[in-house]
Amino acid sequence: FDPVSHILDIAMADNTVVRDKRYGLSTVTGEHLALRFCKLMLAKKHGTLCVVLCPTKQVASLYYHAARRWHPGMHTKMILGTPDVDSYTRSQWREVAEAAECMITTPQIFLDTLRHRHLSACLFCAVVFVECRLCAKTSRSLQHSHPFTEIPGYFLGGDRGSRLLGIQGMSSLIFDAAQVKDRLQARILEVV
Prior knowledge:
Layout: H1 3-13, E1 16-20, H2 27-44, E2 49-53, H3 57-70, E3 76-79, H4 83-86, H5 90-99, E4 102-105, H6 107-115, E5 124-130, H7 147-150, E6 163-167, H8 177-184, E7 187-191
Parallel strand pairs: 1-6, 1-7, 2-4, 2-5, 3-4, 5-6
Helix pairs in contact: 1-2, 2-3
């Protein structure tokens, strides 16, 4: 029995949040799950993009290097906040989209790209939220909403065809599963 394949079967059919009730997913398991999910979604929906949203530049770098190592045939682009990226025009974002199958970035950059309509949500077949606990609004985040709380709204409702996958990492001590489930309109898959 391959638990990752079982999780992927479920995630391909429904928006899903995956978490280990006791310890959280290890970084390697999270990377493997996220990247295999993207690869499967790209195979299912030809000509579209997937995005892996990482909470920090360091985590994005880990996922990018894992993608290059485990899926060298998948055209992966890491986009991090730099003055150049911050000033990208719509045509520059379209060039990125045409050159990549999988974008690995931070949530603020991706949210800004959606807000300014540089890229449309309909281009994406899969959105992966690494550290998906950040999708829940906490009393602290109500003042300064995390981009993870806003991004799902671009993909939910109607027949957009995007699948959302939330991955709960080891660093999360507090996890409001009900809020994350509601925000992503997802089922919670407990891994024990």
